[in-house]
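Example 3.2
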Amino acid sequence: MQGAPTPEGVPLPEIMIMPSRLLSADTTEKILNKIYGVRFVRHINCQGEGLPEKLTSGPGSGLLVNHPERKVIKVNGKDTELKILVGRIFVEIEDFEHVEETLQKIEKICEEMLPFGFDLEVGRYSKFKPTTTDYANKRCS
C-alpha cells in the first residue's frame, strides 16, 4: 500500500527505520503496534526478505515451506499475515511540522525494541504518484 499525498499534492515525509538485523515476527508485531501508538503516524509500510508459502523451484518444488516466522500477527487491532522477515520500516508522518517530534518518539521506541542497533533517516521513500511504467502497464488511468 502507498500513502496519499497531501491535498496540495506534496508528498508527506517518511521516517525509514533500518534495523541491523531482520526482525522476528514477535518483534515486528511489538514495534509496529508501538509505532502506531505515536501521534501523527499516518501509515506504516514494511520491506524485507520474502517467506514463501511453497517452494517454487528445485527438486522440492510445490512443497510447503512451514517457516516458523510466517504467521499471523495483530497490528493496530487487525490480523495481518506476515509474509516477510522485516528489514526496513517506512513510517509516513501526517505533516511537516511534526516530523522532529515524531522522530524523537520513534527513536525511543527503537532504542527499547532494537538493542542490536538501527539507523533512522527522514525523506520520501515510497512513490506517491504513478510512474510512466504504471501508465504503460495500465495500472492506472
